Amino acid sequence: MATPVSPIPLLKDELDIVIPTIRNLDFLEMWRPFFQPYHLIIVQDGDPSKVIKVPEGFDYELYNRNDINRILGPKASCISFKDSACRCFGFMVSKKKYIYTIDDDCFVAKEPSGKDINALEQHIKNLLTPSTPFFFNTLYDPYQAGADFVRGYPFSLREGVPTAVSHGLWLNIPDYDAPTQLVKPRERNTRYVDAVMTIPKGTLFPMCGMNLGFNRELIGPAMYFGLMGDGQPIGRYDDMWAGWCTKVICDHLGLGVKTGLPYIWHSKASNPFVNLKKEYKGIYWQEEIIPFFQTTTLPKECTTVQKCYIELAKQVKAKLSKVDEYFVKLADAMVTWIEAWDELNPSGGKAAELANGASK
Amino acid sequence: MNQDDIKDSDIDIVIGALQPDLTSFLNEWRPVFSRFHLIIVKDPDLKEQLNIPEGFDHHVYTKPDIEKAVGASSTILFSGYSCRYFGYLVSKKKYIISIDDDCLPARDNEGNLVDPVAQHITNLTTPATPFFFNTLYDPFRVGADFVRGYPFSLRSGVTCALSCGLWLNLADYDAPTQALKPQQRNSQYVDLIMTVPARALLPVSGINIAFEREMVGPALFPALRLAREGKLRWETIEDIWSGMCAKVICDHLGLGVKTGLPYVWRSDKGDPIESLKKEWQGVKLMEEVVPFFQSVRLPRTATTTEDCVAEMAKSVRERLGSVDPVFNHAADAMLQWVKLWKSVGSGSSTPGGA
Description:
The complex is a heterodimer. Chain A is of the alpha/beta class.
């Protein structure tokens, strides 16, 4: 087993790694060969008086709840407390073009050959190559080495569209909901599926925030992880919510979402009974939420992510408030989020579409 | 239907013979195929006698058989790669598995021989999940499941009616692509099965395919015939055309389509540059049809696959007939196919797909 060689730090100055944590950042030691060149944004959840030690040698900024309150003032109400949903604060304060976010219980996985997987490098590859949402390619991502478009794939669709999201997967502890965890406590994901693919336009998916990359300039404002945790009736639906909003907006704006490689090694199985309490309402609510997202349409005038998101918030309030009062609060928080985003990112709007081809 | 309830006698393996000597092909497949009944359809344009090794339960159909069943004027529908559709027509089994005669068994990443029949049957007898994407792919595979956030009401899935397999070595590329990358061979065995989401279109390759005969058979037809169609896959487009129709129809009827495993190993054959010198008609035609397929809608009154095909033929004539005469011919062929399916074929599909 060769010692990991320093990878080419692609997009070193254009990518931030956002990590929510409430415990410690020991996991960073294993990621050091891959993460050290990059700037980290640590979002410390929970008790702000606790000191989170960041391993030596990393360039980082750290925000705790006091910082969030100070920076956002009353708008801080849109950022969850006591839930990893708080990570989206990191997305908001970043000044970079790309974000990679990872949970603090995720480690470096190995390919079947035994080689360590540089997850960040794969996410970058995914984000820098086009997506193909309008027609499914049976050999999956045609831009990966060794693959291509198959016979019958229309040539006019082979240029693809810009990729906004790269959704990675997990070996070992799978991202199951509480009922599934309770029924299958021993199940581990051992299947390494060597593929990346674009999720077709019009298709929704459950987005997991554990191992996620995205183009902040293209889709950042849609990556709001909702109101979860302390004082909220629901948890473990933060990334789901962000994913559904993001996919609808990506479909509307002609942007692509990829899923598949890279894998990380998910080490910690959360307590299924605790999870059940958090998810309980979500399991019922999602039966209404999904048809809502499947049928929602955004008007042509929504040409920026922010405009799309505000419109979505309006529709959430109009159509989901009958499900629960929570959605009224959430819709308001969605608006607050956009206001805060625009305040902290004054150039705003959807960035010039890769006009300068700023990729290394 | 549960996989354990499937008997060998529920399955027909349909082989279109475009080459006369099937000895090495069938001998290589013997460990997998010998349990099943084979329908071998000889390309009516092939002059030589077929050479078939001993030990297979099989039935051969040649040009006279085709003419007798469908009439001499219809025989053109079944030439070249399209000859296999005659096999679909005359089969009486529940499931059909069809593999090109230049494909051999593949090996997986552990070096084990892949049994595509078993895998296709597994695909067809476990539900498909077209309405919501599962990020761990087919949740009915051992070791997988639905992930967090997957709506519970969608977890029973729908019947999978079509299973599209893949190819190692010579992938199913078009001529321009293979000509541009003459050395490129597909060596990536991707351990994946997934449902193609509803409303997503895909190119369905006929090289390695399996389906529930009554549900999907009427929607797989040799209708789009290129003016200079040839005896190499990249000189044809009929499977792509019928596959797209089949997907629209499956979406409409609430049936599922899976893609991924199993792989077969496809032998090197043909010179893509030679093929490129012929017309690019297939490539050009695909450009015309995409907007059509993306927007075509079938009426609620179409509840059987045959009805859906008839409606599609109508739409094709109305919206594509003026684009290129080949589409009018395709519409005619689709209607002719439905007639043949009802008269020559056995059994019509149940409304809404059982």
